[in-house]
Amino acid sequence: MVFQLSREEVLKVCTECSSYNPLKDTCEADKDTPRALNLVRKCHKWDEYYGDKCLFRG
Predict the structure, then answer these.
(1) Are 20 and 27 in contact (CB under 8 A)?
(2) pTM of the entire structure?
(3) Which tens digit of pLDDT belongs to each residue from 24-44?
(4) DSSP secondary structure string, 41-52?
């Protein structure tokens, strides 16, 4: 099963993550190429938190 996450569900996990930059609303997991959160489609931390594969289409 694949969960389709809302922005609120994604932020529940991202706000606790050290890779998330709330000022820029970016994920900086890859320091060379930070990505706007609305461009991030999947993350292993979301999968772990929700217990299955997760996708975000922000």
Answers:
(1) yes
(2) 0.90
(3) 999 999 878 999 999 999 999
(4) ---HHHHHHHTS
